[in-house]
Amino acid sequence: MIQNYLTNSVSRYASKWLVLAIDLVTVSVAFVFSYLIRFNLTLNFDVEKLFLQLPVIAFISMVAFLITGSYKGVVRHTGVRDVYNIFNAICLSSILSIVLVLTNRQMLLMDGFTIPLSIIIIHSLLAFIGLTASRYVFKVFYTNLINRGINFSKNVFIYGAGESGILTYNALNSISRSNVRVLGYIDDDRQKSGKQINGVRVYGPEILNREFLRKKNVSEIIFAIQNIDQKKLRKLVESLVEYSVQVKIVPPVEDWINGELKASQIKQIQIEDLLDRAPISIKNAKISKELNGKSILVTGGAGSIGSEIVRQICNYDYKTLIVLDQAESALYDLQQELKQNGFHNFIPIVADVRDKNRANSIFQEYKPDIVFHAAAYKHVPLMEYNPYEAIKINIAGTKVIADLAQQHNTDKFVFISTDKAVNPTNVMGASKRIAEMYISCIQQEGGTKYITTRFGNVLGSNGSVIPLFKKQIEKGGPLTVTHKEITRYFMTIPEASQLVLEAGAMGEGGEIFIFDMGESVKIFDLAKNMIRLSGLRYPEDIDIKITGLRPGEKLYEELLANGENTLPTYNRKIMISKVRELDYAKVRSLIDELCISNMFFSGDTVKLMKNIVPEYVSNNSEFCKFDRSHPEEPIESREDQLNTERLSILEDLLPSKHNPSKQ
């Protein structure tokens, strides 16, 4: 009954005025005790003067409380700040009392009103102790009464006994009727080991073993260390997920609400948190100088990479930002997001990069100084079954925008490629490699500076493996992995986008920039860690199913082709690829031929792609039939044969003077 009253009524009726009244009573009692202590617990003093002085002291204390606002704190959440306010109030009341006593001695305002300074000092100490103790007594009483009968379903350890760890403890304990019990802190500092903070013991990291966690029935471990080394975090988390405990993490200080940590912000650790990637700065001086006052066009601006490039550009002082995409709904969502964040100087355009007339009108109207070309089809299995679309968007679409950039004197053209363009085994990768080659060809004409950026998978992008695994976990599994040994490079979307912007700023034309992707990740291990980070067990709760490599899929991705190497730049995350020399005139002629053949749905387009990119060898695909069946066959003879076939195709496509039926 008392418990129900406290939980349901105290918050409504226990006002600050009640706290003020209790404080005045406490101060008054402390004043009486200060006399008793001063006179050795006897009444050998003028009691009548005591009762004359008591109302004055109570009034002075009330004035001090009103000025400092010490009575306004929520008593059940008393903390260091509240104690500091009480200290200020006591100091102020003591000073006022001393001033009043000294003034009365000089001016005789109140007859017989005199208080020994020793009494004032003793009273200050007693009042401070009484006010502080009363709050903590009520706080402990309230907490114990509220928690009585609660079944603590979660036993928690906090990793990190620093300031962030203490704030995490306070955030967890600030929730009424919380079913979380903090059993202890874990800290690497040996000097803290064995000590207590808020009555909670600090342990060393050596306790993190299966037996200890089982004995303590630990449900969660919360990492509360700011700026923790990502490699260390990943190592710790990977060791903990074996023990069937949930692992959570405290967000960075800058993400706290009004500078305060809320328990709701402590989130379950994600696989992205374990990626060893550099922090992303909001603004970069070199990028700022490059984009300042410029008109910028981003194609594919509603996609994963394109939209993040747009978001980051919005932080700079550009002149105009044109966001182009054929996906109407995604572009609308991005438009609303930017508006809500206070960005208005951008122009969303629904258009297709393959439509040369439409694209030309956009270039004529807005005259972009810089183009970031992110529009592309990127799903390997889909493009393997739809080579027509891969060629049309990834090659012909790139060709349209690149040609228009040259025609309209655009300063820079930044092409976003993929690691799948290196030694491609699928149509998508080959189409992006051919687009890279076309960019190299058109760079030879001078004028516009053409820059290529090449990197691997990005975490959380549309269609990537991590969102797929999350959906499969939500449905109860199984998780599908194409091969047990398959590996991929990963990078966060913000980091990839910033490196694209920085590469565009440093590029002088003709470079292929390679991004440092870190270590490749085994997808099977990634799947197991995601299951365990979800608090589930593999394979007891969720299994992993091996489905086999999809058409065109590689086991391992590469960032450099055979015969390529890199040169460093001032940013250790960006390198310049030294690519093989091309016969630019021949390559450009072949690419033109490929685009024309594709327009007429020619069945030999993939064969033409393999001729343009000799290292393109299909894997697990119907297009394996176009690969060289005899490795010893001279490349020259194969090219002669393909040239004959191409001439035959062109004769069929173009009107002939000697064939009236084709005119």
TrEMBL record:
The chain crosses the membrane at residues 17-38, 50-71, 83-103, 115-138. Residues 296-577 form the Polysaccharide biosynthesis protein CapD-like domain. Pfam families: CoA_binding_3, Polysacc_synt_2. Keywords: Membrane, Transmembrane, Transmembrane helix. The keyword Transferase does not apply. It comes from the Bacteria. InterPro entries: NAD(P)-bd_dom_sf, Polysac_CapD-like, Polysaccharide_Synthase-Rel, SAM-dependent_MTases_sf. Belongs to the polysaccharide synthase family. This is Putative capsular polysaccharide biosynthesis protein. It comes from Robiginitalea biformata (strain ATCC BAA-864 / DSM 15991 / KCTC 12146 / HTCC2501).
